[in-house]
Amino acid sequence: VQLQASGGGLVQAGGSLRLSCQVSGRTSSSYAMGWYLQVPGKEREGVSCIGADGSIAYADTVKGRFTISRDAVKNAVYLQMNNLKPEDTGAYLCAIETRGICDNDVMMGTALDYWGKGTQVTVSS
Hints:
Blueprint: E1 2-6, E2 9-12, E3 17-24, E4 32-38, E5 45-50, E6 56-58, E7 66-71, E8 76-81, E9 90-97, H1 104-108, E10 114-115, E11 119-124
Parallel strand pairs: 2-11
Antiparallel strand pairs: 1-3, 3-8, 4-5, 4-9, 5-6, 7-8, 9-10, 9-11
């Protein structure tokens, strides 16, 4: 199984980006996917996750600004990021959890089965 994250870039504060995570090597879409923010010198933090049943969770810091969605046909998950802030800067990694459950363990990043490489998001003030 491979995960490929894309869509990062450099934007000004208040701008938007749409991240994509393409899953390959797994035909079933019955997984949960999480997005995580990695900043050098800081602990990785969960941003959002979406379960196989469509359940969704967001970190408090992004509620109302970010929207997670999935396309089962394309086997991909997206993170629409609006009203970006400088503190959103970092590498965004996607990961899947094959039980299909978006729960606290997935948001904490402790129950993931496969990880992709990150896509860098830089928000200038």
